[in-house]
Amino acid sequence: MTAPLIEVKNLQRYFGAPAKPVRAVDDVSFTIQPGETLGLVGESGSGKSTIGRTLLRLIESTSGQVLYRGEDLGAASSRRMRTLRSKLQMIFQDPYASLNPKMRVKDILGEALQVHGLANGKAARAQRIAELLALVGLRAEHADRYPHEFSGGQRQRIGVARALAVEPEFIVADEPLSALDVSIQAQVVNLLCDLRDRLSLTMLFISHDLDVVEYLCDRVVVLYLGRVMEVAPTAELFARPLHPYTQALLAASPKPDPEHKSERVALKGDIPSPMNPPSGCVFRTRCPHAIEACAGARPELRDMGQGRFKACIRDDIVINTSLMAA
Amino acid sequence: MNSPITSSNDPSTADTASTVSITPRLDVRHLSTFFDTDEGLIRSVADVSFSIRPGKTTALVGESGSGKSVTSLTLMRLLSRTAATQVSGQALFTNRAGETLDLLALPEPAMRRIRGNEIAMIFQEPMTSLNPVFTVGEQIAESVRLHMGLDRSAALAHAQRMLELVEIPAAAQRLHEYPHQLSGGMRQRVMIALAMACNPTLLIADEPTTALDVTIQAQILELMRRLQAETGMSILFITHNLGVVAHHADDVAVMYAGRIVESAPVRELFALPRHPYTQGLLACLPAQQRKRELAAGEVGAKRRLYAIRGQVSSPLAPPPGCAFEPRCDHALAACREAMPALESAGPHRSARCILVRETATVPALPVETA
Amino acid sequence: MKIPLTLKKLFRRRIVLAAGICLLVVVLVALLANVITGYDPNETAVRERLSVPTASHLMGTDELGRDLFARIAFGGRYSLTIAALTAFGAIVFGTLFGLLAGFFRRLDAPIMRVVDAMMSLPDILLAIALVAILGPSMLNVVLALVLVYSPRVARVVRASTLVVRELLFVEAARAVGVSTGRILWRHILPNLMSPILVQASFIFAYAILAEAALSFLGVGVPPEIPTWGTMVAGSQQYAHEALWIVLFPGLAIILTALSLQLLGDGVRDLLDPRLKKSL
């Protein structure tokens, strides 16, 4: 078993008053192996975006550790962090907001190169920029344009090029497709796959779109209200979810196929506030299989074998598999 | 119930007329909305024709720039009246009393009597669609008082019934709460309650669940389906989410660059899409990819997704012929010459593509090219 | 000649176009003063004092027989220069502090309290006090007015900085590893240009009026220097005899300030929706 590239240990991120904090991330742990694409799924309040940002220290964690190749990122000095940033990059959700509207593409990419001392000299830089643009399917002359001259899909490609400019090992993709049209999403997914394979990238793919996660990821972590509900290899998670929340999530995402009969497991009620999470298992207020014991202690993330983990005290729930596959 | 305005020579309504002579709830004919901007003329909506059957849901599907939102705003006459906006066409709406009116030709006071009353609309962002300085109850009551002439207490009581109808718990209490005190899903329910308050015959829902979480989306869609079954209202559902369309629409009209490129009943559309854009759209979904792999017996092959190449042309520089031609894998030289007309492609189906007309068989589903 | 879209949009409203033309005329007259007028503004001709506007003296003469048109044209140079320097200084100073206050949370409270204190004093009183302390001269008037108007700019810049700071591309720059200084200079500042430009045009207008007021009250520029304000101040006692000697400088002040304000309105209208579109 090779050493993981990224280790997240008991990560917590609370916001607001210490007396009654917003528990955005509440004791989350997982690892990411080199070359792996890990999916992070959840709805609002799940903490997935916060985890992504905390991983790269764009937000400071309240407690817990994030280790990159064994090095504690939280303890790194700002100088060390800057060097590390060339290894850990991010692709952002909103392509319309993630590029400075006053900077040309070549300045945006050039800045990334300059910060890390790559491609010094005017000619070398121009060439590297052209290479990066070609890598993401854009043309060299696009370098002279401003972001508003591009479409959403193209802007996202520029965002990808910026992330790749510093030659990272690990990329956090924070809902990179949500703001794009369906037909453009496919293009960007293909691009990410190509790059991942070509450059041997490790990825954390944050999304709420289960279909894309199923397509793209090797393993999936399911989050609810800042806690991990289930972890599993992709195929197993989608074929045989062990946690009631995962099942509800899968049932709620409508498959684009009128013939596909989906189980109507519409969850009742709203997602609870992260300021006031239910005691014990946070999902119990909406769980169709909740029992009294669920309100007691917080369920541990139990190892179910074969890389599968679930945070549920019950083992006797029958998950209807008729809604999966075919 | 024959309306003097209906004409059955129009191919776009030929199919509706050939079914049992049910007057459609809404019959849109050759709707066009052009905007004259500094940069040029933008044809946001061009020659759009579709109809919505009573008690059924028609989905208007399209990506950005397709004109689907502008279509709904045009129908509701909510576009700002400036000299730069040019609207043409007809929108024949059959109201509760059985009269057929052209929404686009009505004087404004008459249109106001219809809005919120006969035709209601819900929007994508419930936070900005609800007035933050009025309580939820007051907003619903306002609509009720306006259209049904009830006094304040009767209107509030009705508002509470509406909140209960949309399954908001503790409705009596919620009546006096402000929008910011409610969650996104709750607010959308309030929007639906507001829309349902006067028992509309047509609900226009413009991306009502796009901003909501998946599990909440499922609840809202269930709710809308139940309300439709109970009241018999029609729904015009505008979305880009094909999953939602597959399970909640009866008829589908696909829009691209301001035009309808295909329309069909939902099952037929998914089973056999006829327009290359529709085919491409369905093919590029990861779920469809998996389906194809399974059908071909190659599970987990993880091939590249099919992707429609290129992107939508700028509305200021449309292609000379078919708008989709630059991205189409089946394009012929003839496609560049003229915009194809929307023609019948089978029972209750139409498509805007010369290939559909010329070939008896449909162009094959695109196969992934490495 | 192809007019850039920006200018077309800016001048779409006729009044803004009129304001622009008016301002252009004023500036040109001031710049080309020695070419346009035939007279030395300081040359006295006591025999022709207080003469009504005629063909030879387009705006008449003042109490010392000096040609009024020449004085206004040359005076324009002084008035416009003072106002321009004020606007420039206020922008630089105000932006600096607004940026710091908006970006660094710990600096926010101290800086803004000073700003609030300064803004609680009426502009003119503060200016008078400062000039009284510093002594009357063109430079001191500029300094005083810069001090008076910087807080206004600082407040606006701070508000915009608070917004821009949270935008995604700033976070993206941090993710790439860009240093804070560079973020301020390359990412935040350029995106503040819209509110800054609007402020600049308004401050320019206020400065014209303020300098005139100060000079009129005798606590501005020394009376030897012919700004529009000193002209009104110096000639006011003869106004009942010869209205034009205060009318024309007064008109110059009003027209210039008004044009600047209207232009400022036009610039703001232009930039606001555009900001949304390009952002």
Keywords:
heterotrimer; A: 326 residues; alpha/beta; four-stranded antiparallel β-sheet; 12 strands; globular; disordered C terminus; C: 279 residues; mainly alpha; 0% strand
What topology emerges from the helices and strands here?
The complex is a heterotrimer of chains A (326), B (370) and C (279).
Chain A: E1 6-15, E2 22-32, E3 37-41, H1 48-55, E4 63-68, E5 71-72, H2 78-84, E6 88-91, H3 105-115, H4 122-135, H5 152-165, E7 170-174, H6 182-199, E8 202-207, H7 210-216, E9 219-224, E10 227-233, H8 234-239, H9 244-252, E11 302-305, E12 308-310
Parallel strand pairs in A: 3-8, 3-9, 6-7, 7-8
Antiparallel strand pairs in A: 1-2, 1-4, 4-5, 9-10, 10-12, 11-12
Chain B: H1 11-18, E1 26-37, E2 40-52, E3 57-61, H2 68-75, E4 85-94, E5 100-102, H3 108-114, E6 119-122, H4 126-129, H5 136-148, H6 152-165, H7 171-174, H8 184-196, E7 202-206, H9 214-231, E8 234-239, H10 242-248, E9 251-256, E10 259-265, H11 266-271, H12 276-283, H13 286-295, E11 343-344, E12 350-351, H14 354-358
Helix pairs in contact in B: 5-6, 5-8, 6-8, 8-9
Chain C: H1 5-10, H2 14-31, H3 33-36, H4 68-103, H5 105-119, H6 123-134, H7 138-165, H8 168-176, H9 180-188, H10 193-217, H11 228-235, H12 244-278
Helix pairs in contact in C: 2-4, 2-12, 4-5, 4-7, 4-10, 4-12, 5-7, 6-7, 7-10, 8-9, 10-11, 10-12, 11-12
